[in-house]
Design brief:
This protein is of the alpha/beta class. The strands form 4 sheets. An 8-stranded mixed β-sheet has the order 12-11-10-13-14-15-16-17, with helices on both faces. A 6-stranded mixed β-sheet has the order 1-2-3-4-6-9, sandwiched between helices. A 3-stranded mixed β-sheet has the order 5-7-8. It is globular, with a radius of gyration of 28 Å. The structure holds nicotinamide-adenine-dinucleotide. Nicotinamide-adenine-dinucleotide binds next to helix 12 and helix 15.
């Protein structure tokens, strides 16, 4: 049999080893016929004692076929539903056979992979870091449609299944065992198949071993079904709580809850059919297409090195110098040391450098306290960081990243002074958030080795690094920065040089539009609430306070000096508001004692009352949808302009960068993908409406018309 190896031993145990064409086993079109053929053959055996299902690949089974899933349309919905039901029917045939099936899980069993394992009576997994178990479907806008939701509820109950089904949590085998998803673990891969066989032998006379819990008479779902008073009370609250969390923007979690509720109310097979129906509906949504595109295909593209120059050997960073032990420098030191890289953390005084290192100590202590690291390891990480005020300590660094104040003169000065300490062929990176790399590189003797390595705050939490290629930056320097980013386990996007690059420039439009709405007289709470309603993590005024109005003023002044102020659009409205806030009222943002908001000691905040007197006009009414669209479309338009002018090198970098760097709503699949499912023509029309009502900044960039004329999407 091609793809599934079928091997029957003398004891009547059949081992099916899945080895499908391609790198992984998955629910590709080849899967169903293979499984059907294997199950038919098993059903025809007459002295069968048991079945072991395992894999010849490094993963057990990779799950659904996303290439097919992303093509679901209302036109093919019926076929889609029938296919799902057909696969589930084969799973049911396995479950109805009078002999037990064991899943011998040798590698990741996620999504459809776990569902296949759940069609087996007993699940044993190799307890290794290489093995992950869970239902990640929700993170792609889908639900586990191969029985995962219903069986998850049968095995773990509503409460227990929540984090797996609705949050998409993936766990190690030992944790999956505690949760009730699998039965047993083995500590080495060599033990896996012998143990599976031994279990079958132990249970050869045990009829119950071949009956699934959902087919067992009198079986009780953990925590009870919908008739249980506690569950009955919980269900309506769960719906409301979920809505609060997703803001109604994510269809998958609420459909999962619907199916889970059905599993508590109706019989197993009916619940399974309801699951298939909801899965079919979800697969057609724009949100699912957006999330699959961004979080699967484009994330793989970005992390797989599509933007890394080819033909350059992998570059390993051994010793990194970090200049400036402030907020950013201390975070960069921590993530570098965590990756095992030797770090020289330099500031203008030993005291300032020590303070920067103390930040790592704090984070490491927290890890130890939480049991996530032992003291010895934490000590070893900390020992990698040398805080200093001495230039000589930088000798031999193969990478230096400067994170000193955002001031072009200072950055030029330290480049001239400290570049000579780089090891032969070493690379100089700047963590500037706005200044053009090409201009910064003017102070360098090796501009080809000069690059932007833009981190996000807080560095230890934010997963993205934006790498900026200056006019003279070489491929070798780009490869070095790219590989360093991977070394510290972050996701690198690569963009071309431009004022504000991609992320800061695009993010700036969100803040600008929020500030414009304020100056037009809209209620500040409404502005921030509608920013969140669109799916941004924080409202525009609140986030402006966080990055600080003061920083905005400084950047604006620097740009004025450089003659590039308002290069990307009229900033006068925001400039006016910022000036009033800072110059007239001393409100520079959270760090500066308060801005649009007042901050209390307990961490809570309220709108600064002066804001109402200054800006609020109760008579001003703007439709909610217009407010939402203004806040979102400004960012989308700016991202498209970045693509049009080649600041963005790829659509994938734009989508992943916008979600991971600036918090673009996940349901959009990224600021550019948003246009694909909104519809290019509809997007243009809506831009025209917004432009007519609110100004030229809303006109769709020409690249949209070009794509439309070519009949293409942004891919
Ligand atoms: P910060 O003010 O917290 O830290 C700057 C540090 O640089 C200070 O500790 C200062 O003593 C030190 N320094 C100044 N001159 C020095 C010199 N000659 N040699 C060594 N150290 C020197 O600033 P920050 O927020 O960490 O920002 C640093 C850089 O990172 C800036 O370019 C900023 O634009 C960029 N950045 C900031 C953020 C953010 O969210 N804060 C995000 C991305 C990038």
């Amino acid at each position: 049999m091609n793809g599934f190896n079928y091997d029957k031993d003398a004891d009547g145990v059949v081992t099916i080893t899945m080895d499908m064409e391609g790198p992984v086993n998955s629910m590709s079109p080849a899967f169903q016929p293979l499984l059907e053929e294997a199950v038919s053959k098993l059903e025809a055996e007459n002295d069968l004692k048991g079945v072991i299902l395992t894999s010849a690949k490094s993963t057990f089974f990779a799950g659904g076929d996303l290439k097919t899933l992303v093509q679901a349309t209302p036109e093919n919905a019926e076929d889609f539903f029938n296919n799902v039901e057909a696969i589930k029917a084969i799973f049911r045939r396995m479950e109805k056979m009078p002999v037990p099936f064991v899943a011998a899980i040798n590698g990741a069993a996620l999504g459809g992979g776990l569902e296949l394992a759940l069609a087996c009576n007993y699940r044993i997994a190799w307890d290794s870091k290489a093995v992950q178990i869970g239902f990640p479907e929700v993170t792609l806008g889908l639900l586990p449609g191969g029985g995962g939701v219903v069986k998850g509820i049968y095995l773990m109950g509503l409460m227990g299944a929540n984090e797996y089904l609705i949050e998409g949590k993936r766990v190690a085998p030992s944790k999956a065992q505690q949760a009730g998803l699998i039965h047993e673990t083995v500590s080495s891969l060599d033990e896996l198949l012998p143990r599976a066989k031994a279990w079958l032998v132990e249970n050869s006379d045990n009829e119950a071993a071949s009956v699934q819990p959902w087919d067992t008479q009198g079986y009780k779902i953990p925590g009870g079904n919908a008739n249980n008073p506690q569950v009955a009370q919980m269900l309506p609250a769960a719906t409301a709580m979920l809505y609060q969390k997703t803001r109604g923007l994510m269809p998958a979690p609420s459909k999962i809850l619907d199916v889970a509720t059905s599993a508590l109310r109706v019989d197993f097979d009916t619940a399974m059919r309801i699951e298939s129906r909801n899965f079919t509906a979800l697969a057609q949504t724009a949100v699912a297409k957006n999330m699959i595109t961004a979080f699967f295909f484009q994330m793989n593209q970005v992390n797989g090195g599509a933007s890394r120059p080819k033909n350059i050997e992998p570059q390993v960073t051994k010793k990194v110098g970090i200049l400036g032990a402030g907020m950013m420098g201390q975070g960069i030191a921590y993530v570098s040391a965590m990756a095992g890289i030797e770090v020289v953390l330099k500031d203008i005084s030993q005291e300032a450098a020590d303070k920067g290192k103390a930040y790592s100590e704090q984070l490491l202590n927290k890890r130890v306290a939480k049991g996530r690291m032992n003291e010895e390891k934490a000590g070893a990480v900390l020992a990698l960081i040398t805080p200093t005020a001495d230039n000589d300590a930088l000798s031999g660094c193969d990478l230096i990243i400067e994170a000193v104040f955002e001031n072009i003169k200072l950055k030029h000065q330290i480049t001239e002074e400290l570049e000579p300490y780089l090891a032969e062929g070493g690379v100089w990176g700047s963590n500037t958030s706005t200044l053009p790399i090409t201009e910064l590189a003017e102070a360098s003797k090796n501009a080809e080795n000069f690059i932007g390595i833009h981190f996000f705050s807080p560095v230890d939490k934010m997963p993205l690094v934006e790498i900026i290629v200056g006019e003279k930056t070489s491929d070798a320097a780009l490869a070095k920065a790219f590989d360093y980013t991977k070394q510290i386990r972050k996701t690198p996007i690569v963009v071309n040089d431009s004022l504000g690059f991609f992320t800061s420039r695009t993010f700036g439009t969100y803040i600008d539009e929020g500030t414009r709405l304020l100056s037009e007289g809209l209620h500040p709470v409404k502005i921030d609430n509608l920013g969140k309603a669109v799916g941004m993590p924080v409202g525009p005024l609140a986030v402006f306070d966080e990055v600080s109005l003061e920083l905005n003023r400084k950047a604006d002044e620097t740009w004025a000096e450089m003659g590039v102020r308002d290069k990307w659009g009229d900033g006068s409205v925001t400039r006016g508001v910022v000036s009033t806030m800072i110059n007239d009222h001393g409100r520079g943002g959270r760090y500066h004692g308060g801005g649009f908001y007042e901050y209390r000691e307990d961490g809570s905040k309220t709108i600064w009352p002066g804001l109402y007197d200054l800006f609020y006009k109760p008579e001003v009414a703007i439709a909610d949808q217009d407010i939402r669209d203004r806040l979102l479309f400004r960012q989308v338009i700016e991202a498209l302009k970045c693509l049009e002018t080649n600041v963005l090198r790829t659509v994938a970098d734009g989508n992943i960068g916008s979600i991971m760097g600036i918090g673009a709503p996940v349901w959009t699949g990224g600021l550019i993908q948003f246009v694909n499912t909104y519809g290019l023509a509809q997007f243009t029309a809506r831009c025209d409406e917004l432009a007519a009502a609110y100004g030229d900044r809303f006109h769709a960039p020409g690249i949209v018309a070009e794509k439309l004329a070519a009949g293409e999407l942004f891919a």
